[in-house]
Specification:
- The chain is built from 16 helices and 10 strands.
- By secondary structure, it is of the alpha/beta class.
- The protein is globular, with a radius of gyration of 24 Å.
Amino acid sequence: MNLSPHANLILVLGLGKDAPGGTSVVLVAAWIVLACAAIPAILFAVNVWLFRRPFRAWNKRPLPPISVLIPARNEENSIAAAIASVLASRGVDLELIVLDDDSTDGTAKLVRAAAKEDGRVRLVSAPPLPAGWNGKQHACWVLAGLATRDVLCFLDADVRVGPEAIYRMVSELNHVGGDGAEMALVSGFPWQETETFLEWLLLPLIHFVLLGFLPLPGERWSRRSEFATGCGQFLMVRREPYFASKGHSAIRMTMHDGLLLPQLLRRKAFKTGVYDLSKDAACRMYRGVDEVWQGLAKNATEGMASPGRIPVFTVLLLFGQVLPVVVAVLAWALQDAVAVTLSMLALGLGYMVRLVSAWQYRQSWRGAALHPLGVLVLLAVQWYALVGKLRRRPAVWKQRSYEVGS
């Protein structure tokens, strides 16, 4: 008897409708991928309304003075633009302190030139990095000690803020909520510039994971640390809660202050909030394949790739975002219309989230089109990071070596 290639595949895999148990394995798989795809889609539909732009535009309302603090290590390609953008901020009284963290390029020269032109700018050289510290956390802790204002704004050197970004964020920090309490920390996700293949394939998935898997109602309306999140590119915090919680010194060997600093403050019962800065700030986070891979991997085991989280994320992402393609092909080969419909619906939910994100947060449409591939590569980065931690492989960043996740 001659069988079609599809039929041969079905027999080899044992996936026919008459398989043992009387239930099509493919149909069961279709229901599973749909369930795994529905979870982030539903959360995204809720979260996209809460993850908003800081809402108070410049209205000449007086706000607390601010210390903008930039740690800089070999940032000559971006530091001048970062400084200029901060100095162009409207409606805020600020000082800008840049810590030159043992740079070997022209970073210090550029900051020194800016300081001569504007008295609000100050250049400070970092003390030697002590044992047991991550470079960025040490730089931020030193900067906090140098600040003279009651609001500290930690800004990465590759971030360019719009003229209202700082005003909007300090307005959120200064806002008194329904519980009568002010925020202790606010954080924002700038627009991510993506030029190379791996940049536009992977970096937009930061929003997908944030809005698809973190229940923002818990982040907004509770102070529980498990709902904490943030972005280390833009962190603004009040001086008193920062030092009361010991700030960056309490997370000195970590790689991910964007997540861990909000967690730290929430454990002390302070309020934190995260916002969309895609219309108010921009950042070229990484450049090229190696920086993207190593940059995402260095933070992974303190977030998505922690041993307790990665099995859950792997199942949800693999089944909900990648395998719908495989299940749809198999269901089509089996001529199982129900399974085809379910798996295509699962695939459509993933693409719906990505397309809305691409429109809302100005992300690459190419990355959205290759969504299943991007998720698969993201999972590879996470497992690479976890295996590296278990094998005690150090992470190298800014010419420094660290034990990942320590």
